[in-house]
């Protein structure tokens, strides 16, 4: 399959060939959803913690006699029903992440890319090199593409320093190496700009 190749001025400079098995597959929303759950779970800190009966301060001995006081029997001053006592079945430090196999990850990425292609939200750019590092200059270029948010995927060769500096101060605009390409970012951003050199690297990675 072929798509237009543009430059940063939104001018057509040719065509680019895409692997249909990566950019043109059937979209699986459930796999995309599973991958986003996987990403969110992996990013959770899991450091929430309350003190159990073994950790809370207090006496372990009986607070008063078993009988004769008129009170309900108690074995310690640490249970949840006492002020300053432990929390019953409270949260503990844990790892929220779960595993997702390689085939599922690849299929999720392919589905996300194919979904964006169908919506005409992926733009292929010949190069991200720009003349200066002025934010205003880059902002004017982005207005030609009519996007509310943008993610720029660059190749392993690195990104132009002028572009990096100019984009750093624009809200809802991010840059990402193709190695870090993930489903959540693809879905989150309105339009995805992929550098020409990145296409072959993404294709090789997902084949």
DSSP summary, beta strand count: 6
Give the termini distance in whole angstroms. 16 Å
- Supply the CATH class of the largest domain: Alpha Beta
Inertia-based shape: elongated
CATH-scheme architecture of the largest domain: 3-Layer(aba) Sandwich
Q: Strand count, sense and closure of the main sheet?
A: 6 strands, mixed
Number of helices: 7
Characterize this entry briefly.
The protein is of the alpha/beta class and 207 residues long.
Topology readout:
Blueprint: E1 2-6, E2 12-17, H1 20-23, H2 29-43, H3 102-118, E3 122-125, H4 135-143, E4 150-154, H5 161-167, E5 173-177, H6 183-188, E6 191-195, H7 196-206
Describe this structure in words.
Strands 2-1-3-6-4-5 form a six-stranded mixed beta sheet. The protein is elongated. The chain has two domains: 2-44 and 99-206, Ribosomal protein L4/L1 (Ribosomal Protein L4, Chain: A, 3-Layer(aba) Sandwich); 51-95, no CATH class. β1 (2-6) and β2 (12-17) form a beta hairpin. Helix content is 33%, strand content 14%. It is built from seven helices and six strands, in the order ββαααβαβαβαβα. α4 (135-143) crosses α5 (161-167).
